[in-house]
Design a protein that fits this description.
The chain is mostly helical. It folds into two domains: 60 residues, Arc Repressor Mutant, subunit A (Orthogonal Bundle); 132 residues, Tetracycline Repressor, domain 2 (Orthogonal Bundle), CATH 1.10.357. Helices cover 73% and strands 0% of the residues. The protein has ten helices and no strands. Helix 1 crosses helix 4 and helix 6 packs across helix 10. The longest helix has 27 residues. 22% of the residues are buried.
C-alpha cells in the first residue's frame, strides 16, 4: 500500500476542518433564525450543510456535540473575562464586569438559549453549562469567606447560601433580561445587579439584635 504523503495528510485535515466548520455554521444559522435546538434534527443539518450522515458522524458523536463545540468561542470569552473578576473589588467594578458579561451573552444569545434548553434534558450539555457557573460560585464563596475573615462582611452571613443565590440567581436574571430588553437598559441592569451583590452580601449591614 502506498504510504500517505504529507500533502495528502494536510489535504485530508483541511477537508475535515472545513466539514466541521460547515456543520457548526449550519447549526448556528438555524439557531439564529429562531429555531429551537430540540426541533432541529440531524437530518435537517445534513440537508442544510450538504453532507452525508456518515460524514457527519465521522466528525460528531451527536447533535449535542455540535452545540458544545459551537460554544467554544463563548467559553473562551467568558474565561478571559473571569480572569479579571474580583467580586469584592467595589460596586463600580462589579457593574463593569456584569455589563461585559451581558455584551458577550447578547453576541451569543441564540447559542446560549439552545444550551439552556438542552441542559434540561441532556446531561452532557448540563455538565458543560454548569461547569462555568460552578467556578464562579466557588470564586464568590472564597471571596465572601475572605471578606468575613477580614471583618468586611458580617459573620452572620451564610457564605455558601449567599454565593449560590447571587451567582446562580444572577445568571437567571441576566438571561431573562436579555430576552425581554433590547439592550437600552444593559448599563442600568448591570449597575443594579452589582448593587444587590455588594449591599446584599459583600457589605451587608450588620444585623442589629434587639431584646
Amino acid at each position: 500500500m502506498r504510504p500517505v504523503t504529507r500533502r495528502q495528510a494536510d489535504h485530508h485535515a483541511a477537508r475535515s476542518a472545513a466539514t466541521v466548520a460547515q456543520v457548526m455554521s449550519t447549526l448556528q444559522r438555524l439557531l439564529d433564525s429562531g429555531e429551537a435546538f430540540s426541533e432541529i434534527s440531524v437530518q435537517r443539518i445534513l440537508e442544510q450543510a450538504g453532507i452525508s450522515r456518515a460524514t457527519f458522524y465521522a466528525h460528531f458523536p451527536s447533535k449535542s456535540d455540535v452545540l458544545i463545540r459551537l460554544t467554544n468561542d463563548l467559553r473562551q470569552s467568558l474565561l478571559a473575562l473571569a480572569q479579571q473578576w474580583n467580586p469584592s473589588a467595589c460596586p463600580d467594578k462589579l457593574a463593569q464586569f456584569f455589563e461585559e458579561v451581558i455584551t458577550i451573552h447578547r453576541a451569543h444569545q441564540s447559542v446560549i438559549t439552545a444550551v439552556r434548553e438542552a441542559a434540561a434534558y441532556d446531561p452532557t450539555i448540563d455538565d458543560f453549562y454548569t461547569a462555568d457557573l460552578e467556578g464562579f460560585d466557588e470564586t464568590a464563596l472564597q471571596s465572601l469567606l475572605a471578606d468575613q475573615a477580614a471583618g468586611l462582611t458580617p459573620t452572620d452571613l451564610d457564605a455558601v447560601c449567599a454565593s449560590r443565590i447571587i451567582v446562580w440567581g444572577g445568571a437567571q436574571a441576566i438571561a431573562h433580561h436579555i430576552r425581554v430588553d433590547n439592550g437600552t437598559n444593559d448599563t442600568t441592569f448591570a449597575r443594579e445587579l452589582a448593587q444587590i451583590w455588594w449591599h446584599g452580601a459583600y457589605r451587608r449591614p450588620t444585623t442589629q439584635h434587639t431584646t
